[in-house]
Specification:
Blueprint (H helix, E strand, L loop, with lengths): L41 H10 L3 E2 L2 E3 L7 H22 L4 E2 L1 E4 L4 H4 L2 H15 L6 E4 L8 H35 L19 H18 L3 H15 L13 H23 L3 H21 L7 H21 L12 E2 L16 E2 L1 H20 L14 H7 L11 H4 L4 H18 L3 H18 L2 H14 L2 H4 L2 H18 L2 H11 L7 H10 L1
Parallel strand pairs: 1-3, 2-4, 4-5
Antiparallel strand pairs: 6-7
Length: 527
Amino acid sequence: MPRRRAKYPDHVEHPLSQVVLHSPFSPLSPSSPLYPDGIINAQWLRKHQDLVPSLFVPFYMLDPNPDTAPVSDGKLKLDIAGIRTALAKSGYRTKLAIVLIADRDQQQLFPDEGAHERLEGIRKGAGLDPKTVFYVPPPPQESDADVVEAADGILSIMFQQATEYYRDIGRHARKKRGRGSVPPPTVPPTSGTSHTLSTPGWNVRYDFKTAVFAEFRQEMDVALRSYEQCYETLVGPDVLDAIPSWSPRWNEARLVADITAIRCLRCLLWIGMPTTAVRRWQAHRDRIRDLVDRRGRGTSNYGWEAWEARWATVMAQVVERANLAPFAAPILATYILPEKAVLGERIEPWDMLHHTGHWYRVAARHTAARRALAQAIPEEDRQTPDSWPASRVASRAFTYDTYLCPEPHEENGFSHGAVIVHCLMAARSQFEARGQTRSAAELTIQAAGELLRMKAWDEMLAMLRPVWEKTSFRNEGWWLVVEELSWALRKAAVQAGRGDFVLAIDWELLDRSRLPGWLAVVSLAVY
């Protein structure tokens, strides 16, 4: 596990007064990338999700031989004692529980009475609480159902212990917030060049921690309230507006706002509030749009469209990971009806939570807008900054929004078409699964247009051929759509060397009874 306290920096002279050491992930520690005024980063999340367990559970097989069992049990006690000592030295509150497993021969060698006495001896010798020692009895020869039942019971008790762990550290975070004071850093920052995190910034940090711990306890309504409080303080005038615009710290705070909004969406979907989740998605987008407009760079650039596309993709992924029953087979709904809490309000169609295909299509549209704005970048801005004078670099710094996207001289090398095709194909699969054939065909044609720009002829031919052969546009008289589809497929067939497709397409384009006259004339000339 990571160190509980950070080391005192070697390059700083040790003061005569008492030194206060903090966590390596705290903005109070000079070794932390957040020092001295950062809010929170992914390292803290990784600490609690991957590095510091709430409950450490080793498994041990009991020795079935009565002659060697006392020796093996003694070694087991020493091993458990060593684990307890290591956990105590770490400084964390991680709980310890052990699982003792008996094999199929254990029942004959140790009856139930003997097994109980043996377990009590191990527990007392290791100094464990009775609630933290679990025994898995030997299963019958013909079935393992008893093992599954025992495992479910163990997991249920362990979940309660893990919940208590996160309740304790969550209570500790709330107490720190209630003090209303900023703790002193290990080393004061250099005067005149930097400052420590403000009190509202610390409140954001404590609220985020409290929400995460509530999420670990699966108390989503409690987590949602803490996340909302964290978000409102963060995007308010005391935190984000107080940070210099477009600085690295400002971008970090903006990222924390995005992450907090994502976690709010997850909590809302968990507690069954789909329409509120959609409105929350829209509210964050509008809030960030207003923030970016007020801070000088505006939303008429490729950086904003890149964020819009990312935000729509995030919504698609959150909905997909939520595994909502109406969107799963066999229902496959196109949208979810609003919850009872908003039924009395005026609800617009876009307030409904639509399936992931809708959000992927939105992401594709914004990526296409991003490409158009990237292609409009002046030629002088496409050059590498190394060839520019300092005045030019300074003036361009406030022109483009490069939050989570490349610099202007790298943007044109970004594969916009591949991203658009990926989003369109992800959307098409969802529309097809729900029988929305026209929308699926439209998305296929749009994806084929992107492949046309990329000159991926074989992929384009394979994508358009099923639509051209099975489309219902002919029976419904949508001849302009048939025309567009035919010409696109014909171009791909020519480049791919498929003369049979060219002949079949030209035969349809020559049909004067269905296609416009001017189209037939053009077709004859080309043929």
